[in-house]
Amino acid sequence: MAKIRNQYVCSKCETVHIQWSGRCNSCGEWNTLYEQAAASGSGRTVSAGKARSKASICNSLDLGPVDLDWQAISTGSAEFDRALGGGVTAGSVTLIGGEPGIGKSTLLTQFLAAAGSHGYRCLYVSAEESRSQIAGRIHRLGGSEISIGILIANELEDIEDQILKYQPQIVVIDSIQTISDHFMPSSAGSINQVRECATRLSDLAKAEGIALVLVGHVTKDGTLAGPRVLEHLVDTVVYFEGDRDSYLRVLRVIKHRFGPVGDLGMFEMGSAGLVDLENATGVHLVDRVEGQAGSVVFPALDGRRVILTEVQALVVPTSSEQPRRVATGLEMNRVLLLLAVLEKKIGLRLYNKDVFLSVAGGVRLADPAADLAIVAAVVSSLNDQPVDSSYVFVGEVGLGGEIRSASNVRQRLGEASRLGFTTGIVGSNFSDPVSGMLILKVKDVRNALGQASLTFS
């Protein structure tokens, strides 16, 4: 029997180190090395309590027909189904992460309740809550405990045995960081445990054709806790985002082997759980006050979904030698660049003004196509001239003051037109017509401000 020794593997780049170090010598990341057992003399890693499987080569002539018709199980939510391209796929593994208290358990309980009501055999595995807590949430959200099996366990072997015995079609593990294999010396939540448990459960789900959903904890910087290989292992990675002080929740898919990525699901959190947001496109414009100087609408593109946002600016005189520049929801370097363009190309005097910029609703914009909206909002506030409430602005501003084309302009303007906006100011390279929308093409910032009836002298 080979002697077992320890080695250290980087969770970012998976480089193997003989000794522990605070920094990976390969990728330079700090505190990413975790301990792993390896067979002496072979350099191969071994997992305690699990024998290595014997693999065999299969000749291509022995392969049967391949079924490409994925069976998608509806989640009972139109927004959830939209984000996943129709629903959760049988035999797939989905990893969903989010901050504590954001609503992950509520979302998945509603999913199981909907699936159970349609005849699917569901199992909810929890190591964090009691049976009475889970049953109470199921009843509160309109489900029935009879249609959902509840298992309270944190031992991997027990969970595997119960899955094989219960034969569910859908399994939710809440959460993967609380599950452990008692044959491994490390504690639950360690990198070794998370990797081993996720691998075993994933193999079981694919072998039995089970739709497996793993709930993952996130770190303080918002990334999923555990080894990076966890995200490579699963078929779908989903982030559930939102401010706990706000009713709005966003489901963002960043990896999906059974469909496109980048789509969003938007929900409203209420006393009865999560509800699909009916007017997701214009949700941030509900409280907008029309006819107010410094307010401009920009159709942002988040993934493959258009969300209309309100860019607000406030420009006030200051006697300070160093005027303030404050941006909330916008990149500060981009804002400073645009202010410099306005001073150089338009001749605006902003050196003695404090400039405050914000995106309403807590939205963060990193899209260069928002440049034109930012410029219009600043000039509108500076001269106290409201922008026509039926206008939207789309375009990137270059250092020479020129307006560059943006991506998916037709899609952006189409959504704006659907919500009642009638005029779009865009770059001169855009040529496609948009039903119900007057397109004003502009070459530079000066031309754009003139089309919006904003003075800048």
Key attributes of the depicted protein:
457 residues; 26% strand; 24% helix; Ribosomal Protein S5, domain 2; single chain; Rossmann fold; 10 helices; four-stranded mixed sheet; alpha/beta
Blueprint of the fold:
Layout: E1 4-10, E2 16-17, E3 33-39, E4 72-73, H1 78-84, E5 88-89, E6 93-97, H2 104-117, E7 122-126, H3 131-140, E8 148-152, H4 156-166, E9 170-174, H5 191-208, E10 211-216, H6 229-233, E11 236-241, E12 248-256, E13 264-270, E14 273-276, E15 295-302, E16 305-317, E17 325-328, H7 332-346, E18 353-359, H8 371-382, E19 391-393, E20 396-397, E21 403-404, H9 409-418, E22 423-427, E23 438-442, H10 445-451
Parallel strand pairs: 6-10, 6-11, 7-8, 7-9, 9-10, 17-18, 19-22, 22-23
Antiparallel strand pairs: 1-2, 1-3, 4-5, 11-12, 12-13, 13-14, 15-16, 16-18, 20-21
Fold and architecture overview:
Helices cover 24% and strands 26% of the residues. A nine-stranded mixed sheet has the order 8-7-9-10-6-11-12-13-14, with helices on both faces. With 457 residues, the chain is α/β, with parallel strands linked by helices. The longest helix is centred in the middle third of the chain and has 18 residues, at 191-208. The protein has ten helices and 23 strands. It has helices at residues 78-84, 104-117, 131-140, 156-166, 191-208, 229-233, 332-346, 371-382, 409-418, 445-451, and strands at residues 4-10, 16-17, 33-39, 72-73, 88-89, 93-97, 122-126, 148-152, 170-174, 211-216, 236-241, 248-256, 264-270, 273-276, 295-302, 305-317, 325-328, 353-359, 391-393, 396-397, 403-404, 423-427, 438-442. It is elongated and about 75 Å long. The protein folds into three domains: 1-46; 73-276, P-loop containing nucleotide triphosphate hydrolases (Rossmann fold, 3-Layer(aba) Sandwich), CATH 3.40.50.300; 283-451, 2-Layer Sandwich (Ribosomal Protein S5, domain 2), CATH 3.30.230.
